[in-house]
Amino acid sequence: MDPSMGVNSVTISVEGMTCSSCVWTIEQQIGKLNGVHHVKVSLEEKTATIIYDPKLQTPKTLQEAIDDMGFDAILHNPNPLPVLTNTVFLSAIASPTPPWDHIQSTLLKTKGVTDIKISPQQRTAVVTIIPSLVNANQIIELVPDLSLDTGTLEKKSGTCEDYSMAQAGEVMLKMKVEGMTCHSCTSTIEGKIGKLQGVQRIKVSLDNQEATVVYQPHLITVEEIKKQIEAAGFPAFVKKQPKYLRLGSIDIERLKNTPVKFSEGSQQRNPSYTNDSTVTFIIDGMHCKSCVSNIESALSTLQYVSSIVVSLENRSAVVKYNASLVTPETLRKAIEAVSPGQYRVSIISGAESTLNSPSSSSLQKIPLNIVSQPLTQETVINIDGMTCNSCVQSIEGVISKKAGVKSIRVSLANANGTVEYDPLLTSPETLRKAIEDMGFDATLSGTNEPLVVIAQPSSETPHLTATNEFYAKMMTPIHNKEEAKTSSKCYIQVTGMTCASCVANIERNLRREEGIYSVLVALMAGKAEVRYNPTVTQPPMIAEFIRELGFGATVIENTDEGDGVLELIVRGMTCASCVHKIESTLTKHRGIFYCSVALATNKAHVKYDPEIIGPRDIIHTIESLGFEASLVKKDRSASHLDHKREIRQWRRSFLVSLFFCIPVMGLMIYMMVMDHHLATLHHNQNMSQEEMVNVHSSMFLERQILPGLSIMNLLSFLLCVPVQFFGGWYFYIHAYKALKHKTANMDVLIVLATTIAFAYSLVILLVAMYERAKVNPITFFDTPPMLFVFIALGRWLEHIAKGKTSEALAKLISLQATEATIVTIDSDNILLSEEQVDVELVQRGDIIKVVPGGKFPVDGRVIEGHSMVDESLITGEAMPVAKKSGSTVIAGSINQNGSLLIRATHVGADTTLSQIVKLVEEAQTSKAPIQQFADKLSGYFVPFIVIISIVTLLVWIIIGFLNFQLVETYFAGYNRSISRTETIIRFAFQASITVLCIACPCSLGLATPTAVMVGTGVGAQNGILIKGGEPLEMAHKVKVVVFDKTGTITHGTPVVSQIKVLVESNRISRNKILAIVGTAESHSEHPLGAAITKYCKQELDTEVLGTCIDFQVVPGCGICCKVTNIEGLLRKNNWRIEENNIKNASLVQIDASNEQSSTLSSMIIDAQLSNALSYSEALNAQQYKVLIGNREWMTRNGLVINNDIDDSMTEHERRGRTAVLVAVDDVLCGLIAIADTVKPEAELAVHILKSMGLEVILMTGDNSKTARSIASQVGITKVFAEVLPSHKVAKVKQLQEEGKQVAMVGDGINDSPALAMANVGIAIGTGTDVAIEAADVVLIRNDLLDVVASIDLSRKTVKRIRINFVFALIYNLIGIPIAAGVFMPIGLVLQPWMGSAAMAASSVSVVLSSLFLKLYRKPTYENYELHARSQMGRKSPSEISIHVGIDDASRNSPKLGLLDRIVNYSRASINSLLSDKRSLNSVGTSEPDKHSLLVGDCREDDDTAL
User: Fold this and answer.
1) Which residues share a beta bridge with 521?
2) N or C: which end of the chain has fewer CB within 10 A?
3) Per-residue pLDDT reduced to its tens digit, 533-550
4) For the chain, what is the mean pLDDT?
5) Does residue 949 register a pLDDT over 50?
6) Among this protein's residues, is 1044 annotated catalytic?
7) Cβ distance 494 to 546 under 8 Å?
C-alpha cells in the first residue's frame, strides 16, 4: 500500500511557551490547517504532537507554521511515525435514499476521520478513521441514517500494520455485569461466553461486577456478546468502548518510527534497498506453523525489512533488511516482542552487507531511536531525607537495578543523585518516582534537564520495564516461555486413587489433552496440580477429563493451596531502608507474591510460587544484597500436642493438696474414733448431755486456745488455707470458664462445695470467737483437702496418658531426612557439582543424589540409576520395590543397594511423609475427648444440690418462726444468750451447709479414676498397655474392629511355603536344588532371598553354604550367579539320608506348607544318594550357572516356560503367594512359592470378636488377590484392598459417621493416622514406634487374642465404674434428706461427725469396689479354643466381598449410560493400545494386581522381584 495514503504523526519541540494560553493558541491555529487531524501540545514537555495527512502536509511545513506564530520550533526527528487507521463499513438502514453529500461533509469535518468513500448503488460508505481519536459508535451517532455493517467489518491494513494488535484484529471490551452473587455466577458467564465463536478470552470479576472480553470483531459483535450475557440472566452494559489490544512492547512503536518518504520519487516500498544486509536469528519458543506466520507477518510489515524466512525445523529466521535504517539488535527485539511475547531470540551471524551504490552514504544512516536520542543521558535528582550511608546504598542498590539505568552516584553531602540512563527504557520522572517510593523526597533538578526530548509518553515506559525485568530476573526456568505467559494453575481434589499406577494413568492421559502443559499428582494428598492454557481449557473441563478416567474429581477453589511460604531470619539490617531494600528487591522477582520483613524481629515472611522460584533462590537474592539469611528452624518435636504444661500444673496441684491432706485426714480419723468412743460411753454409762460436753471439751484437740477457737479448728484452718487457694487454683479457673459458657461441670461442683464449706467454717469460727463460745463450733475444714487430692490425682493421670500422643509425631518427624545432596548435571547426566543443603531448601525440580542406605529427602522421580527401595513406610508391605529411570520415590523411604539420581516433584509440606504427619496430627487434634460421665452427671447434680440446699434454708427459717420449740430441741450448740431470730437463721444455715457438704462430689470424682487406674494396671499385668481412661472407657462401645493385614493378621515376613521340583530326581536331587538356591540367594538383600536362604539352611540342617561368584541382581526381575563348593554340603547331607533310610523303611518328604506333598519312596532316595555321590566324585567342585527370578527373567534369558509351570505359578499367585522360578545350567528345575503366613491365633481371634457381636474388617495396602487369600484363611468376609494411609483414615471416619465406634488394629507407620483417628487404636507391640505412639492400646505380646482381652477388660471396667456411681449416689440420696432434717420428727438427726463419716465411707466403698477389678483374669488360648472350635470354619473366596480402595461397592466402571459405556470401553481399549495397561476403567473387570507398586515397571502378572 502507498505509504502516503496513510496518516502520520510528528513530534516537534516548541520553545517560548509561557502559559496555557500559548498552548491553546498553537492548538487552534495548527488545528485549522488543511490535512491536520489532531494537535496535542504539552507545556511541561514543551512539545507539540501533530497527526496529519502526508499528502497535504509535511513535518517541515508544520514546523514553519509554528515558527510563524512566534515560537521557536525544532524538528529533532524529521522522520514521522505512521499512525494506525481503521476502516468502518456503514450501510443505509432507511428505505429512502440517505443524503450522501450531507453525510460526506459531516464526516469529513469530524476530528479523526481521514477519508470517506461512498457507493450510492450499494448504499454503503467506507470511512477511514484514527481509532485513537474517534470510534465507530461516535460515527454512527453523527449519521443516524447509517448503521454499522458488521458483516464486512475488517481491519484496514494501514501504512504499517500494528502487530501489537493480534493477527486477527483482537478487540478488548469491558462490560458492566449486574446481578452476580457468587463465583458460580462468574464461572457460568465465563463458560457460556468463552464458548462463543470469535471470543478469544473472557475474565469476569465478581468484586468489580465487570467482564473483560477479548474478541474478534469480524466473527462476533458487541451486541451479540451482550445478548448472550443477558440470556444467562445477568443485565450487561458496555462500560468502555471496544479498543484494539496493544499487546506488544513499546519497542515496537519505536520500530515503526520509520521514514515514510525516502525520496520524492520512490513512493512505493522498495523490495530491494540500495544497502541490503542479511542476518540470521535463532528463535526458541516456536511451537507450530502459526508461530512462523506470526513472526513473518509481523516483521514483513516493517518498512526496512525486505524479506524474512522463518524455519520451524531449524528454529531460525533469515532477515534481509536495510542496514542504514535499522540494526540487527533492534530486529531481535522486534521478534521477541511479537505476540504473545514468548520467543527467545539470539543473533548467530553478523550482518552481511550488500552495498549496491555509493549513494547509500547520503541516506540517513541511523535508525530513529538513535537519531532522536543518544544512547545515554544524564539527569540530576535532588534527594531529601537521607540520614546515613545505608540510605545512600539503599537508593543506589534499588535504582541501579531499574531497567535502563546505566549508573547512579548518590551524594549524601550534596543531597542529590546523578543518574546515567537509557532514555529508550526509562525517564527522569520514572526514576524520581522510584526514589520517592522508597520514602525519600525527590525533585528533578532544573539545570540538568536532558537535552533531547523523549518522544514517547512516559506512561508506556513501565510496560517495557516489566518486559525487560521479565527476562533479566527469571531465575528458575519454567518449562517454556509460552507457559510463563499464557498458563494458569489449578488444583483438583482427586478421589479413588489407590497406587502409583493410578497416578501415572492420570498424568499420562491428562498430558495428552490439548492446552495442558504439566500435571503433578500427589497420591497421599489426593491432589493434582495442573498447569494449563486458559484460552484452550478450564479447570472444570480438566476435572471432567479425570472423571472420565474413572476417578472422582473436584476443583479446589482456594488457589493459595500451592503457594510456598518461607520464614527467614535476616541478619545485618540496620534501619527501615534496609527493610525496604529487601522487600522491593524480592517483590520484583517473578514468582514472589508477597514479602514482609520485620526489622524488630529480624524475620522475613515470603509467599512464593514453588514452580517458578524456590527458597534457595530467595536466600541467594537476600545475600546478594549484603545481608545474611537463614531458615527459621522449625520445631520438629510436635510440642504443641504434648500436655507438659497441664501435666505440670495438675501434678503441682495434687502434691500441694496431698501434703496438707494427710495431717487433715489424721485429725479427722482421730476425731471420728474419739466421737465413737464418747458415743459408746454415753450409751453404756448413761452420761448426761452436760457431762458429754465436758468430756468432749477436755480432749486435747478440743482445748480452746482462745475462747471459741480450739486447737483442732485452728490446725484444720491452717492446713486448709494453702489447699483451698494453691491446690485448688486450677479448679477455680476451670469452674470460672465453665460458668462463663453457662455450663456446670465437675469443677463447678467441687469449687462450690469446697468454697462454701471453707467460707461457712471460717464465718462460724469467727462468730464463735466473737461470742466467746464455750462449745467449739462444728467446722468443715477437712472437706477441701480431701476433695482436691482425689480429683487432682485423676486429672494428673489423665493428662499423662494424653501426653503420650505427641510422641507419635516426634517419631514420625524423625523419619524425615534432615539434609539432601543436591547435584548439578549436564545434558549427558554427568555430575558437575554437588552440595549438602537443609531439606527445607530443596526446590521442586532439583536433582538429588541418594546413596545406598540413604533416606529419600523428598518425593521425586528417578532420572538415573537402578535400586531396590524399602517403602514399607507407606505401603506397609515388607517387599522392597525396584526403582529405575521414571519410577516415583517417596520421602522417608530407604534406598537399599544402588545410587539414584531423582528429580524432586513434591517438597516441603507436600511430601508423602509430611502428609502422613499431617494426618496423624489432624486425627489426634480432632478426636473429641470422651465426655466424662461424672461431668455430665454433675451438670444436673450441681443445680439440684444448690436448689435442695436453698430450699432447706428457707424451710427451716419458716419452721423456726412458726415453731421455735423444734429448733430449740435439735440445735446442738444452742446458746440462750443470743436472740431467737439469730438462732433460727444460724440453725437453718447449718442444715443447708450440711446438705452441701454431704453431697460432696468426692465419691463421684473417685468413681472413674480409681476404676481406670486399677483397670490399666490389670491390663499392664496381662500385657495390654492402655493409655489412660479414655480408651478404656471407649473400648466397650466398639462395634467394628478393623485389622491391618501385614504384621497384624500375618507375621509380616515372607516364608517359603512350597518348593516344587520340575525335573526328574535322577537328573538333579531336591537337596542339590536347595543347596544351589540357598547359596545363590545368600548374597541377595531382598526379603524373598533371605526367606529362601533361611529355608534352605533349615532343610539342609546347616549354617554354612557353598560359594557364590559373579553375583548380579536385576531389580524387578531376579538374580544370576555361579555356584560352586556344594558337594561337601551334599555329602554331609547324604550320610544323614542314609542313616534315616536304615532307620525308616521309607521317608515321606512333606513340603513346608503341607500342600501338594510329594512323597518319594526310599528307593528313589537311595537312587538320589548313589547318583549324587557318583556326580560329586566325577566332577569335584563343579560350577553351576544359576538363574532365579520371575517369568520375565527366565524369558529374557531364553528359557521357555511351559503351560503346566505357568498354571502352577498362576495358582500360587491367586492364593496371594509369590512364585519364583529356578534354573540351573539353563534348565528350569524348580518353582519356589513364598508367602507371608497367617498368625496361628488370627482365625480364633476373628471368630471370638464376631461371637461378641462385633463386625470385623480387613484393610490392607496389598493387592486384592493376597487380601482375599488371607481373609479366607482367617474367616473375615469384608475386605478393603489397595488402601492408602489416607484412605484408611477416610474409611475409619466413614464408619464413625455411620454412628459406629471403631477399633483399628495395626502395626505400621502407614496405619498410624488410622490408629490415631479410630475411637480405639490398638497397636501390636512388635510394630513400628510411630504406630505404638499413635495408638491408645498397645499389645506387648504379639498376640491377637489380646485384642479380644482388651475389649473384654474394657467392658468389665466400665461395669465397675457404673457400680461405683451407684455407691456414690446411694450415700448422697440417703444422706441429703437426713442432712436436710426430713427425718427429724422420727428422731433421725445427722450429727456433723456422721456427715464426715458418711462422706469418707462413700469414698472408701468406691475405692474398694474399684479394687475388685484386681481379680480380673484374662481368658487363656485353651478356654477360647474350647468355646470356638466347634463353630469355626474357613470362608470360601465367594463369601468374601473385596473392595478396591475405600468404596463400599466393589469397584466397577462408573455407572454410565449405554453410549457412555461404549465410549469409555473404546477409550479404555485405545488407552491400552497406547501402553496404558492400567486404565482404571478395567479395574472392575480384571482387578489388576498392584504389585506393580512393588516391582517398578516389570508388570508381568504377579512376580515379586528378587
Assistant:
1) 528
2) N
3) 888 888 999 999 898 887
4) 75
5) yes
6) yes
7) yes
Look at residues 164, 170, 239, 168 and name the one whose alpha carbon lies nearest to residue 204: 239
Return all residues near 819 (Cβ < 8 A) that are at least 6 apart: 836, 837, 838, 839, 857
Close Cβ partners of 547 (under 8 Å, ≥ 6 residues apart): 553, 1454
The x, y and z cell numbers of residue 747, run together, are 469443677
Please, what is the Cα angle at 566 between 562 and 567, to 5 degrees?
150
Joined grid coordinates for residue 1240? 496361628
The three grid cell numbers given for residue 696, joined into one nine-digit string: 468432749
User: Does pLDDT of 1348 surpass 80?
Assistant: yes
d(CA 116, CA 1381): 115
Torsion of CA 685, 691, 694, 700, to 10 degrees: 0
Name residue, grid cell 516426634.
810
Residue for cell digits 491494513? 157
The residue written with cell numbers 500444673 in the block is 649
Q: At 1054, list the grid cell.
A: 515372607
Tell me the sheet residues that pair with 519. Answer: 530
Which amino acid makes up residue 1155?
Answer: E
d(CA 281, CA 176): 45
Q: Which residues pair with 1234 in a beta bridge?
A: 1056, 1218
Q: What is the DSSP letter of 1495?
A: S
Q: Are 858 and 900 in contact (CB under 8 A)?
A: no
Classify residue 454 by its DSSP letter.
Answer: P
Predicted confidence (pLDDT) per residue in 794-826, tens digit: 677 667 765 655 565 666 677 778 889 999 988
For residues 637 and 797, give the distance between their C-alpha atoms in angstroms, rounded to a whole number.
22
Spatial distance between the Cα atoms of 1489 and 1495, rounded to a whole number of angstroms: 11
- CA torsion through residues 1342, 1346, 1347, 1348, sign: positive
CB 62 within 8 A of CB 50: yes
Distance of CA 612 to the CA centre of its chain: 18
Distance CA 838, CA 907 (A): 12
pLDDT over 90 at 1368, yes or no: no
Query: Distances in Å between the alpha carbon of 216 and those of 70, 155, 159, 213, 342?
Result: 48, 11, 21, 10, 22
Q: Please, which contacts does 177-181 make with residues 24 or more away whose CB atoms are closer than 8 Å? A: 177/204, 177/209, 177/210, 177/211, 177/229, 177/234, 177/235, 177/236, 178/209, 178/234, 178/235, 178/236, 179/233, 179/234, 179/235, 180/204, 180/206, 180/209, 180/234
Walk across the sheet containing 377-384 and list its strands. 405-411, 416-421, 377-384, 441-444
Q: Tell me the Ramachandran region of residue 1381: left when phi exceeds 0, alpha when psi lies from -120 to 50, beta otherwise.
A: left
Exposed, middle or buried: residue 436 (CB in 10 Å: 0-12, 13-18, 19+)? Answer: middle
Nearest-5° Cα angle at 646, 645 to 648: 65
Taking only the tens place, the pLDDT of each residue in 248-294 is 444 444 444 443 333 333 334 444 444 678 889 888 888 777 678 77
Task: Output the CA torsion sign for 396, 398, 399, 401.
Answer: positive
Interacting residues of 1083 by C-beta distance below 8 A, sequence separation 6+? 1089, 1108, 1111, 1119, 1121
Q: What is the DSSP string of 965-998?
A: HHHHHH-TT--TTS-HHHHHHHHHHHHHHHHHHH
> Structure pTM?
0.48
Would you state the cell numbers that stand for residue 281, as one nine-digit string? Answer: 536469528
Distance separating alpha carbons of residues 435 and 430, to the nearest angstrom:
9
The mean pLDDT of 1272-1281, rounded to a whole number, is 89
Could you tell me which of 131, 140, 150 has the C-alpha nearest to residue 225? Answer: 150
Encode pLDDT of 156-182 as tens digits.
Answer: 333 333 333 333 467 888 888 888 877
Q: Determine which one of 609, 935, 1044, 1503 is catalytic.
A: 1044
Mean pLDDT within 1228-1242: 88
Question: Closest Cα to residue 1330, out of 639, 812, 640, 637?
Answer: 812
